[in-house]
Amino acid sequence: MIRMTEPSKITSVPDHQPAAGGIAARARASVGPKYLTGLNPEQREAVETLDGPVLVLAGAGTGKTRVLTTRIAHILSQGRARPAEILSVTFTNKAAREMKHRLGQMLGHAVEGMPWLGTFHSIGGRILRFHAELAQLKSNFTVLDVDDQVRLLKQLLQAENIDDKRWPARMLAGLIDGWKNRGLMPSQVPSGEAAMFANGKGGKLYASYQERLKILNAADFGDLLLENIRIFREHPDILRQYQQRFKFILVDEYQDTNVAQYLWLRLLSQAPSKPAAQAVIPERLEDNCESDEPDASHQPEMTERAAIAAAPSGPTKNICCVGDDDQSIYGWRGAEVDNILRFDHDFPGAKVIRLERNYRSTGHILAAASHLIAHNEGRLGKTLRTEDHDGEKVTVTGSWDSEEEARGIGEEIEQIQRQGEKLNEIAILVRASYQMREFEDRFVTLGLPYRVIGGPRFYERAEIRDALAYLRVINSPADDLAFERIVNVPKRGLGDATIQMLHDHARKRRIPLFEAARAVIETDELKPKARGSLRDVVAQFDRWRAQREVTAHTDLAQIVLDESGYTEMWQKDRSADAAGRLENLKELVRSMEEFENLQGFLEHISLVMDREGGAEDDAVSLMTLHSAKGLEFDNVFLPGWEEGLFPSQRTLDEQGRAGLEEERRLGHVGLTRARRRAMIYFATNRRIHGTWSTTIPSRFLDELPAANVEITESKGGSAWGGTGGYGASRFDDMEAFGSTYSTPGWQRAQANRNRGGGRNGGGGRGGFEEEAGSFSSSSSPGPDFGSFSSRRRGPLTIEGELVAKSTGTTSEFSVSDRVFHQKFGYGRVTKIDGNKLTIAFDKAGEKKVVDSFVQRA
């Protein structure tokens, strides 16, 4: 039996709260959220400091991504905001996806309802689509890619009667992109900058371009933020709505923001000053905006920050920016390191939290990187440290030339591989893409698999393929694929119709395209302009093929690139990558020096091009320093640390001290990619702008701490070439010098010869023998090296057969035959020359045509 107590007689029990400092309170505190487990004190402070502006200075390898995602998880778990009230901005879609994935793992469920986690441009696009009418657009506007943008600008240049060869559309696109990155509307472009294009018409063309975009209901990537900024400034009620919505703002890689991104954030990060107006912002917007990142090929100049003066001042909300001023390396595409350096000025009362505990690299690597970057004046200051062991010291190795540098690194990689380490944990980080060529060739020789990160392999680049196609046609006139690739490169007015005609004729006669072109130019099949262009192409190849017999293949390659107009085409191109393409072409010509003749070089290329491998294969990673940011490897090779190459002379000339500091930051990034070993190389001699030059080691080497650096000897051969058993230097190719002189270099060469130190024991090829008449006499004090380059080798073997000849076949037609031609109609044969017919057409008059294009009437 259950006895019930009357309610009036029940004694109430007071609510219990654990006593401060008691067992229950301490036990509950020890549990805490699981996502906070494993954070170091600085990371935890960055996660739990939710109120007010916060700058997290996160050095390389200090776990910044974890801090950013954990901070969002903490905001959500503490109930400080709903997912739709957090604005989290990244630079890439990949980073945004990774952040969502990590949040799901931390919170134990999928992260939904976060429409404002994405890239600057994807979020800006969402906002612009909802308020499109305020930008004279419709909500279904198109986002133009770079190619569409250039085509539109070409139309505008033609309308203004501006020579697009002198003032390329791509150059104007780069200027407009730079202005938009700085938050400048057409009316705000400084007159001096507007005068940089088409004799002062740059500003007018920018305005016309914007007007045309509105008519087409289109925007480019720059507009996705620029129009946001304009709408926010002109419509404060809309700005207040977004300010009220976003209770927390988080920004990743803040050091890489440009002026427009900075202005956009400043506007949104201000606390709303008064109640919102009627504007309505939906909880969730359609994600129908283009989310790809903007093209990075343009290089806008960042010469002033006048637009920032328009940014609002006043109280700020909870904004947290994560970044590293020591890793700001994208100034060439508009990034402003000043944005992070002036954070405490822009956001008064900001708390700065430094993450200095590195979880990636060993002690010696961190000490070297920290000592190097400490020479920069424009930085907030922090020192990376590790609780790991010191590990191996950073090594610095000197080489005689870039070839020995590649050999030495190849030997080192093979040794690492023999120790059982994976090639995937090895990376070579170069300052300029043309440096990759020698490493690629060396790896093919050694049979080492490799992959190029952030771009195609050297021989797969478009400009290299084009140049090789010219050489292939010279070597083999029957190479139809090569001929078709370059017959209209540069543009010669030989369009698809002409190419199709050549194909038709070649197929009917069973001859190569080149011979089909030779036949067609002797007829009236083509219009005069196209016929003249094709005749010039055929004549050029005939001339080059004749020169091949008496001209060194390296000189021939340079002649072909110049006479074909291919070099001039890239010289006139004002795009950001044109200079790099020209450097690659020079490197291609230089690479041919190692081969006896053109045939041998092309055979080598076929081996290089034939090598394929998937991304999952074990392979060495080859990339530029700019492409390496965010990556890490056990072993990192850093070649080319020489003045002029690194730091880049071009950067120093264009940007002065600011450029030097960005180059130094690039060195810091390169060093901190290494977990266990960082190996720096420099060469005493390197080919720069097509000429061998003696270089001096980079100033950055003297900025490394001696206690953390070890000097090592190159494994690629002796510093003076040919005596160390690793192969000869490039001077070993000289069979003789025509005169003697008493320079130290000559004395060493003579000593090598006397010791039998040449490639062939000092005699013949590879030695240094005196031989009368080897060089022509000259009044100059030293030997005439130019005459060596002009000395010609005869071909070793000439084999082959004449594939086709237009006049070597007998036509099946006879004089007076009645024939029909699809273009010219009916006519009668009046003369026959091989397979070429002269026909008197009834309406078109007398024409010369190839017999395969006519049929009996």
What would your notes on this structure say?
This protein has about 850 residues and is α/β, with parallel strands linked by helices. It has 30 helices and 23 strands. Strands 9, 10, 11, 12, 13, 14, 15 and 16 form an 8-stranded mixed β-sheet that branches. Strands 3-2-6-7-1-8 form a 6-stranded parallel β-sheet, with helices on both faces. Strands 22-21-20-19-23 form a 5-stranded antiparallel β-sheet, with no helix packed on it. Helix 6 packs across helix 9 and helix 15 packs antiparallel against helix 27. The longest helix is centred in the C-terminal third of the chain and has 23 residues. The chain is globular. About 15% of the residues have low confidence.
Short description:
With 857 residues, this protein is α/β, with parallel strands linked by helices. Helix content is 39%, strand content 13%. It contains 30 helices and 23 strands.
Arithmetic mean of pLDDT: 80
Give me the number of helical elements: 30
- Taking pLDDT < 50 over at least 5 consecutive residues as the criterion, the unreliable ranges are 276-313, 718-746, 755-808
Which term fits the overall shape?
globular
| Helix/strand structural class | alpha/beta
Estimate the strand proportion. 5-15%
In helices, the fraction of residues equals 25-40%
Termini separation: 121 Å
Tell me the radius of gyration: 34 Å
Number of DSSP strand runs: 23
Biggest sheet overview: 8 strands, mixed
